[in-house]
Amino acid sequence: MSLPPEKASELKQLIHQQLSKMDVHGRIREILAETIREELAPDQQHLSTEDLIKALRRRGIIDDVMKELNFVTDSVEQELPSSPKQPICFDRQSTLKKSDGTRMADSTTMLSISDPIHMVLIKTDIFGETTLVASYFLEWRSVLGSENGVTSLTVELMGVGTESKVSVGILNIKLEMYPPLNQTLSQEVVNTQLALERQKTAEKERLFLVYAKQWWREYLQIRPSHNSRLVKIFAQDENGINRPVCSYVKPLRAGRLLDTPRQAARFVNVLGYERAPVIGGGGKQEQWCTLLAFLCRNKGDCEDHANLLCSLLLGYGLEAFVCVGTKAKGVPHAWVMTCGTDGTITFWESLTGHRYIHKPASPDEPPVAEQPKPLYPYRTIGCVFNHQMFLGNCQPSDAVETCVFDLNDESKWKPMSEEAIKSVCAPGATTSLPPFPPLCASTIDASVTSNEIEMQLRLLVSEHRKDLGLTTVWEDQLSYLLSPALASYEFERTTSISAGNEEFQDAIRRAVPDGHTFKGFPIHFVYRNARRAFATCLRSPFCEEIICCRGDQVRLAVRVRVFTYPESACAVWIMFACKYRSVL
């Protein structure tokens, strides 16, 4: 469980005061001495942590401390204390507060907390590749009506995507309220509350569906050709459930893990790209992942990347939208758009981190000079949306290069009712989706991982050259000189600013003697599998030429630099280099 720094400090102070007040340290010392004297065998003088905890629990000290701590639910928006990297994640927004003798939030208050517990099951193979196995939303409030605040549940986990109707296993769950509630509710009260919520949610979703159908009919009446535009109002999640697309986006703050919108774009870019698997032919499988499932497996389709990037940009206070349309050859695609206060429209490609400024071309007026082709890869656009708005493109042409993004002009963009969207997508509007989880700091040690991959690559290169009958001599100093170039490449990917190349080139000129030739090949990956990276490098004729270099006084170098991002995502830069005496 993670807490904001100010809450963690407040919690530490509260616990310290309570421990001092109850003289817990003194009591622990007494029990420690007593346990060593009475409970351990004469020849066993080592006291383990487990022995101490058991002794404290038998004497009721842990229960006494927990009863004096006050857990108060706060309804304002906070950082979530969940950890998306764990297979099972608790997504309830809760906080610990210091109060003057008040009790823990009572059972009635807790019954009103409708957020489910989102559990995600991930399979990781020996190569570190992850697969999403199951995604389940657990209704936890049955424990409020159980005796002693303890209940056991058995849930059936279903597969995802095309296997959403196939069982993958049974999960036995034990739920316990701790500290115990002073007063439990009857199971009938709990069941009645849950039934009322389901009924209310179903009615909201029914009314929104009726409204969406009416909106679509009106949209088609504007122009019959609108029927072929990519206007996506609903999308299936990993469980095959249709949800309004606006529910996949919410403002998301990265705390201190990401400093700028461009750094956020780089983070989303280094998350792996993988299309939803398809059984048989028939084109692309429909699957938009919930944010937690996307972060847990660290890879997803273009829609998943666009939804996450849009959420992060909204968190930075930008007016951001997800765009749904096509790119070259009519391939469906999703990207992000931001609208500046000065009217500047910027496209963000979530799969590459690239940014493009949109300057619409007028289809009516003949250009004085032939207009340059747009740099962005997008061809058509059908709709844009975020957590509050949904707008369908009703301009005569859906071509991006001629599109005008004046979203307030209803003759160009047909809006959906913001109230209708709010009824099913606002926080607390539905019981089916919990709040977004916070991003988690990386658990990867960049220096250690860089060194490990570099050592593995050296071994792979040496073995490869040995098979070719070549000897391998590594030059550590030359390898070290490659570091600034790798840092410069990553800085340029993040900021679109090139820096540091002059120093790198000067250092290489000094390191390579007269009459010698230097060759270098940088390459970028978003995974940490050295053998897979080496196989990819060998497919490049430039890199193979360096690795298999023949000549006089051949010296080889390789440098690896891992740049870490939240959720243990990383950018891995590798540079192979060689220098040798030129022989005519």
TrEMBL record:
<feature type="domain" description="CEP76/DRC7 peptidase-like">
    <location>
        <begin position="286"/>
        <end position="416"/>
    </location>
</feature>
<comment type="function">
    <text>Centrosomal protein involved in regulation of centriole duplication. Required to limit centriole duplication to once per cell cycle by preventing centriole reduplication.</text>
</comment>
<dbReference type="InterPro" id="IPR028926">
    <property type="entry name" value="CEP76-C2"/>
</dbReference>
<dbReference type="GO" id="GO:0005814">
    <property type="term" value="C:centriole"/>
</dbReference>
<dbReference type="InterPro" id="IPR038765">
    <property type="entry name" value="Papain-like_cys_pep_sf"/>
</dbReference>
<dbReference type="Pfam" id="PF24652">
    <property type="entry name" value="CEP76_C"/>
</dbReference>
<keyword id="KW-0963">Cytoplasm</keyword>
<dbReference type="InterPro" id="IPR056289">
    <property type="entry name" value="CEP76_N"/>
</dbReference>
<protein>
    <recommendedName>
        <fullName>Centrosomal protein of 76 kDa</fullName>
    </recommendedName>
</protein>
<dbReference type="Pfam" id="PF24656">
    <property type="entry name" value="CEPT76_peptidase"/>
</dbReference>
<feature type="domain" description="CEP76 C2">
    <location>
        <begin position="96"/>
        <end position="182"/>
    </location>
</feature>
<comment type="similarity">
    <text>Belongs to the CEP76 family.</text>
</comment>
<feature type="domain" description="CEP76 N-terminal">
    <location>
        <begin position="10"/>
        <end position="69"/>
    </location>
</feature>
<dbReference type="Pfam" id="PF24654">
    <property type="entry name" value="CEP76_N"/>
</dbReference>
<dbReference type="InterPro" id="IPR056290">
    <property type="entry name" value="CEPT76/DRC7_peptidase-like_dom"/>
</dbReference>
<dbReference type="Pfam" id="PF15627">
    <property type="entry name" value="CEP76-C2"/>
</dbReference>
<comment type="subunit">
    <text>Interacts with CCP110 and CEP97.</text>
</comment>
<dbReference type="InterPro" id="IPR052299">
    <property type="entry name" value="CEP76"/>
</dbReference>
<feature type="domain" description="Centrosomal protein of 76 kDa C-terminal">
    <location>
        <begin position="443"/>
        <end position="581"/>
    </location>
</feature>
<keyword id="KW-0206">Cytoskeleton</keyword>
<dbReference type="GO" id="GO:0046599">
    <property type="term" value="P:regulation of centriole replication"/>
</dbReference>
<dbReference type="InterPro" id="IPR056288">
    <property type="entry name" value="CEP76_C"/>
</dbReference>
